[in-house]
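User: My instructor asked us to take a sequence, write out its structure as tokens, and then describe one feature of it. I'm not sure where to start. Here is the sequence I was given:
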Amino acid sequence: MLQSISKIKNLAVFKDFEWNSTVLDADGRTIFLKPLNIIYGRNYSGKTTLSRIIRSLKTGSISSKYGSPEYTVTLTDGTSVTHESPTDHAMEVRVFNEDFVRDHLRVFANDNENIAAFAVLGEDNAAIAGQLAKKEAELGSEYTPGSLRSQESECRKSVASTKLKNSDREDALNGLLTYKARIIKHNTRYADANYDIRKIRSDIKVVISHSYSQPSDETVTAHEATLLELPKSEVGVWAEPKLGWDTIVSAATELLGRAVRPTEPIQELLDEVILQTWVERGREYHEGKRAKCAFCGGVLPEELWGKLDKHFNKESKVLRKQLETLVDSINTELDGVSSLLPIDPDDFYSKFTREAQSLKEKITDTRARYTAVLTSVRSSAQERLTDIFSSKSIPDTEELADTFQSHWDEYEDLCKRTNAYTASLSSEHSKSRTALRLNEVAIYLEGIEYEKKLKQIAASEAEIKCEVQLHTEAHRKVQEVLGVIAELKSSMRDERNGAKKVNHYLNHDFGHQSLRLEAVAAEDGADAQYYFTIQRNGQDAYHLSEGERSLIAFCYFLARLDDVDSTGKPLIIWIDDPVSNLDDNHAFFVYSLIRTHVAEDPRCQQLFISTHSLPFLKYLYRLRGKRTYLYVERHGDTSDITEMPQYLRRFVTEFHHLFRQIYRCSKANPRATADESLFYSFPNNVRRFLEMYLTFKYPDHGETQLDKIERFFNHDAVSAIMADRVNNEYSHVQGLFERVSLPMDPPLMKDIASFIMDRLKVETEQYASLLKSIGVELEDDNDEGDEGVGATLEI
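Assistant: Let's start with the prediction itself. The structure tokens for your sequence are:
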């Protein structure tokens, strides 16, 4: 049987429904389905959607227009059926809803269509029927002890139970491994932020292999020490040194030795180099700028500049410019000497520190020598600038390019060896981390008894395999007998009896005597031998009313419960809104059919009836059996399933409700009751109750209400007047507006209620029946608590 529709998602008005969090009783406990389930909901609340879910358990599919629907139906044996494989169960499900009508009674939509025929067992097949009964008894149901279906059900339950037990064991072990993986992940020693259960499983394969042996304590200590040695950053190799020495020497040799002579030399300036320099420099400050000497104040003759031009000719100016450029290039080279081949011994491991320090000293010495050579050449260039007309030779210099190259080669080799050592150290760290991690995993596995748990899981898997084989064999036997039953039924098929069965229900005195189904032989080549047509008074019927269609459809469904595919099988039946478009008489007729031919049929294992009709709901309360009341309610564009509210299922009529309230008031303690509304609503309750009761007790419309009340109280005028006062003053405030400003008089209400109960007791049988309708037995009528039945009476 069905236990619940545990989940519905993306299915019409059910967006994300969870049964266990919604279908709860007043104490917050989950309500489950029972053999009888009555479901009430207004139109468009989702009742038909629920019926479609259950119908998919038979048809294997649900409307593709729902997009991506998801649902899970939980069975009482603990298994579940989902949208992915809706027919993966052994239940026989029959559903009456608009989809059933559309699929089987296509004539309602198109007059050119017909009604699908079905066969019931023929009447002249006693021998075959006996064989069929024997096979069906052998097949039985899952609740028939010793039957094939019972054996299959037990096997299926065993498989499910063992799988669940094994799943719990696997989940528990996975939980332990996940926990340890998280510990290792956050341990900085292992430097693996991505360590997870997949990696710990990989480590476990290594640890449990025969080739693995746990390290000794000394080895563990050595691995821990290795991890303390931190690797240095990779040492970058310098760019190969590029000196400007060759260019400088070449330029200096040519410029220092170049000979230049004045065009018309001034001997005095040639003899005094300092004077010549002074004149040349002073010319810059005077020519074109001053008429007098800035030093002595004497007038500077115009011919002086021409005379100086012939001494300081163009050739000397070019040489001077080139020498100045040479000096600038030497200065630039000197500025770069300090950055040639920089080295920091701290960049190297301690084993390379001495070698790095020695190389640094050699580089420093070579830099100093190179600086001295450059300075010497620069000095010579500066001297030639001072005496531009005197040639000079380049000073003795030392070739240091090869020395710098040698230093670079040595440094490159040192860097390579250092970086190789870094790589080696990282590898050693990795080896140590792996060894320590595997050791920790091995110790953990011993602590959680990993091998023992694996053996338990393996044993469960072997048990599952064995139970699956038993279930397969039991299922094979069931299918084998089903095949025999199908053959027997096939030999007894008679679609004409199906039409007769529909007509049996349809032509009942309270049904529709003029309508009937007629089985018509199909043409050769058709899939079925017969099809059904609808006739009215012997003629093909057209333009059926909605009520007629509803009645025909339900009688057709009811008859199909006896077709050859349903005979002898326990059924799960869902009936969705069967009284739509029916008048009260036909609605009660449908109820009577449900009661006698469905609810009381021993094949009906579980029954669901959904309706939007309150009058029909009233009839459904009369059905017998353990039941669940459910309420489908829509909120905007979503719906929920909840327990049916008390006001819908407690009282069949308002009359019962009013009687209960007056009865409670008669038993209540005005000084102790916590339900003040019991007294404040009492006047209206009394007025409505007496109007209903006295109208049927004294139907003479010529009497006034007060006359009827006096007769009811056996002409006790005082009681009648007091009751009428409550009716008028407290119920209507007739002319006594001050009444609303005064407190209620609970003792008076209790007295009037008691008077009414005393009068009702005169009709002993009626009074006992009234008590029973509100859940009170006559022998318990005198019991009173602190608040009378107000505290104890619950239905």
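For the description part of your assignment, you could build on this observation: The radius of gyration is 55 Å. Try explaining in your own words what that tells you about the chain.
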